[in-house]
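# nightly structure sweep
# worker-07 picked up a monomer target from the shared queue
# config: single-sequence mode, recycle default, output format = structure tokens
# input follows
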Amino acid sequence: MSVFQNAQFELSVAHTATLPPPVGLEVAFVGRSNAGKSSAINTLTGQTRLAFVSRTPGRTQLINFFRLRCGAALVDLPGYGYAKVPEAVRRKWQGLLERYLAERPNLVGLVLIMDVRHPLKELDVRMMEWFLPSGRPIHVLLTKSDKLSRGQAAATLQTVRRALREKMPAGQVSVQLFSSLERSGVEEVERTVSGWLLPEQSAPDAGAAAFDGGNAK
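# output follows
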């Protein structure tokens, strides 16, 4: 059974002071506004409205917790990079996101969402460079892969893989293609995140090829 199955909404918080006690491991989902983060969470959990999907970028203003049956939690963080958000609001979101990522003791990994058509934007690279010193893994989902032909998507994956090899420490960042519409790439995400949350149950080679991605064929 999928580690994501039967996920339930737990709570939303607007300030780090109101975060729940750090009980159970947590995996954070983050990405640029409108990159497909909420859709990815819904697809992985097999639900349609667990995470709020908005047609207006920049609507996710809270940290949302979704509790898994294993006791761990998926944590949906505010999107970044939406230019039309007022500067004061953007600073508040950034502070909330950074404090959570820097101070949360039970955070075990980061799932970074990028639109496959617009990968490795400056803020994405800055996010990775800022988070990497924590020593925790990052798994990149190149979402909306259905918007490209299979050849184009595979070529983009190879380009991103090469860039990550050049810029990031070996073994700490993994990357794959993903499509919520086609439900492709779900098993690869499950293997990676299960390895973070349930390492004793993971296959010895699960997630071993850090830059290889699961569906690069």
